[in-house]
Write a structure and sequence with these properties.
The structure is a single chain. By secondary structure, this protein is α+β, with helices and mostly antiparallel strands. The chain folds into three domains: about 70-185, PAS domain (Beta-Lactamase); about 185-295, Beta-Lactamase (2-Layer Sandwich), CATH 3.30.450; about 390-620, Histidine kinase-like ATPase, C-terminal domain (Heat Shock Protein 90). The protein has 16 helices and 19 strands. It has helices at about 5-70, 70-80, 95-100, 130-135, 185-190, 230-240, 270-275, 295-345, 360-425, 430-460, 470-480, 480-485, 510-525, 555-560, 575-585, 620, and strands spanning about 105-110, 115-120, 150-155, 160-170, 175-185, 200-205, 215-220, 220, 245, 255-265, 280, 285-295, 465-470, 490-495, 505, 530-540, 540-550, 590-595, 600-610. The strands form four sheets. Strands 6, 7, 8, 9, 10, 11 and 12 form a seven-stranded antiparallel sheet that branches. β18 (about 590-595) and β19 (about 600-610) form a beta hairpin. α8 (about 295-345) runs parallel beside α9 (about 360-425) and α9 (about 360-425) packs across α15 (about 575-585). It is rod-shaped, with a radius of gyration of 61 Å.
Length: about 625
């Protein structure tokens, strides 16, 4: 698989994974937020229902207490305590009193629990009222009735219903008279609630042993098509605990609602009711269930929008991934291909191969490192060639010295014999004889000088490195030529020394001799006068020393052969000076170069690394046991 295909797959997988993770995170957060919002709305509605229940209960208590304290009720209680036996005259009193207090239910009950008058069902006259018979005692000196408002099942002529009741008693004599009044708990009660948008409230009146859809009321009366709520109602009836369930009305999930079911309980008044109802406590039975439903449409629509957005973003991300992989692949592979091509050229021997540095990132650093490597390889090759050339000429110098030493001793013996012969028997050719011997001795001295130069070149000392300041070496060389330059005022000297040059590890004596030879060459190149310039420069990882003159200059051919031992462009000298300079620079791990043009002068540049050179020097150059240092100031 190609690199671009791998990049494409990587980008595509990354985009899809990011979209999936973000979508799942948003989806999960959104669902939790909606569920929490549903719970908050349900709790708010339930709290509002309880608050309204307490308010309406307090109102019912107040109304019942007003009825109990009314004049008609007091007259009825007085008649009962006087022993009146005919109570048929009280049948219509409850209806009249209920109308005055706007109560849906009102009953007058004597101390035995017998109904004297009923506003909601007059036929109950003479029947017992279980709420009173269970809570009060006919002969008790004090009343025992339920405290506060309570829920109660109330039987009506058409069907039973659920009401909010309160009981109050009045005592004129020994026998108390009870007033039991209340209001319906139906859709009218629900209409008083402030229901949030997207929420609806249902009330199930638990009046039958089985599920009865007619007992489920909303704001408009009995709710239609609600049989799917039966399992939730049954679960609450079984457990008497809050419950929650998602009701799906249609196949469209957006039409679903989340219903929270809250049980409503009341006291138990009959044994039969106790057996039929599920108990919430020792004296409580389930009388109703408050159902708070929240629509899931906003959640479902938002989920669908998230899915569609995720698909859109994922598709766009795939397109971007394809384009990015193509662009990035081209950006990466093009430099890599160029680098591979350059590497093949280097392997084939072309050390001048370069790679274009098109950026400053890692690829740019790689290209720059490759270019530095090829430069180092080229420099290493040059140094190796220079070292091999110097070694070859050193071998030549040793051989030449060996060849020239052999005839020196016989020549010297011959001259000395001639001189002794001359001293013993002077002849007429005495003058010629003296001239000849002088000439022979002079030539012998010249031969000795040549041999000494070549011998010294072959025994160049190994550098004794120590921290060296190049500017100090330049200053010491100029001090040597100070007197000579003072006499020859036709040559002007200019120095451009860089400040704060770092010290390098070098042999200052050998550097002094190398610079001495370059300055001497520059002076010899300007017999008619000119300008001598010595410059030092800090190039971060190396130091450059340049010696320039304004002499006659050299041709390209002469520049190419300039560092060859025994090659010289002047009338005098051995041609070893620049070879010695090159040897010193090479032994220090540096590089020397020359730039020259005819009639425009010559510039020699020496580059020395600030740190010890990392490449090994030629074994021929550094491996020999060299002799002591000597001052070689011969010009090349």
């Amino acid at each position: 698989m190609s690199f671009r295909k791998k990049l494409l797959l990587l980008f595509a997988a990354t985009v899809l994974l990011c979209v999936a993770v973000i979508s799942a995170s948003v989806y999960s957060t959104l669902r939790r937020s909606f569920e929490q919002a549903d719970r908050d709305r349900s709790n708010a509605v339930a709290a509002q229902f309880r608050s309204e229940f307490e308010r309406r209960g307090s109102e019912v208590e107040r109304k019942v207490e007003s009825v109990a304290a009314s004049e008609p009720v007091q007259h009825i209680a007085l008649d009962i305590n006087r022993g009146a036996t005919d109570s048929a005259g009280y049948v219509g009193e409850a209806h009249s009193l209920a109308g005055q207090q706007q109560l849906d239910f009102l009953e007058l009950v004597d101390s035995r629990g017998t109904i004297l008058s009923s506003a909601q069902w007059q036929a109950k006259f003479g029947y017992p009222e279980v709420a009173i018979s269970q809570t009060g005692q006919a002969t008790a000196p004090a009343l025992a009735v339920p405290a506060g408002a309570f829920l109660k099942r109330e039987e009506l002529p058409d069907a039973p219903t659920l009401g909010l009741f309160a009981v109050r008693g009045t005592r004129v004599g020994e026998q108390p008279l009870y007033v039991l009044g209340g209001e319906r708990l139906d859709q009218g009660f629900l209409s008083t609630l402030d229901i949030p948008t997207g929420t609806r409230v249902l009330l199930y009146q638990n009046l039958d042993a089985r599920w009865n859809p007619k007992s489920l009321l909303d704001l408009n009366g009995p709710a239609a098509g609600v049989d799917q709520l039966a399992p939730l109602v049954a679960h609450v009836r079984d457990t008497l605990q809050d419950s929650q369930e998602v009701i799906r009305w249609t196949s469209d999930s957006a039409d679903a609602e989340v219903f929270h079911a809250i049980p409503l309980t009341g006291p138990i008044f009959t044994e039969s009711n106790q057996n039929a109802a599920r108990l919430a406590g020792a004296n409580q039975q389930l009388l109703g269930i408050l159902l708070v439903g929240s629509s899931r449409r906003p959640l479902i629509e938002l989920e669908r929008q998230i899915i569609s957005t995720a698909m859109l973003v994922g598709g766009a991300g795939l397109v971007v991934a394809v384009l990015a992989s193509l662009w990035f692949g081209a950006r990466v592979t093009r430099p890599v291909v160029s680098l591979a091509e350059a590497a093949r050229r280097v392997a084939a021997g072309d050390l001048g191969a370069k790679v274009e540095v098109e950026s400053r990132d890692e690829l740019g650093e790689l290209a720059a490192a490759f270019n530095r490597m090829t430069e180092d390889l080229a420099q290493q090759k040059d140094r190796t060639l220079q070292a091999e050339r110097v070694a070859a000429w050193r071998e030549l110098a040793r051989r030449l010295a060996h060849e020239l030493k052999n005839p020196l001793f016989p020549l010297q013996v011959t001259v000395e014999n001639l001189m002794r012969a001359k001293q013993k028997s002077p002849e007429m050719f005495e003058e010629v004889f003296h001239e000849g011997t002088a000439t022979l001795l002079a030539e012998i001295d010249n031969l000795k000088t040549i041999i000494a130069h070549f011998s010294e070149f072959s025994r160049m000392p190994q550098p004794q490195r120590r921290p060296t300041q190049v500017n100090d070496v330049v200053g010491s060389v100029l001090r040597v030529f100070h007197a000579q330059l003072q006499e020859n005022n036709q040559i002007t000297v200019r120095t451009e020394l860089a400040e704060a040059l770092p010290e390098i590890s070098a042999d200052p004596d050998l550097l002094h001799r190398a610079l001495h030879n370059l300055v001497l060459n520059a002076i010899d190149a300007m017999p008619q006068g000119g300008a001598l310039t010595i410059r030092t420069e800090n190039l971060r990882d190396r130091i450059e020393v340049s010696v320039s003159d304004t002499g006659s200059g050299l041709s390209q051919e002469e520049c190419g052969r300039l560092f060859t031992p025994y090659y010289t462009t002047k009338q005098h000298g051995t041609g070893l000076g620049l070879a010695i300079v090159q040897s010193v620079v090479s032994d220090h791990g540096g590089k020397i170069s020359v730039e020259s043009k005819k009639e425009m002068g010559t510039t020699f540049r020496i580059e020395l690394r600030c740190q010890p050179q990392p490449w090994p020097t030629n074994q021929v150059v550094t491996g020999e046991n060299r002799g002591a240092k000597s001052a070689l100031a011969d010009r090349g």
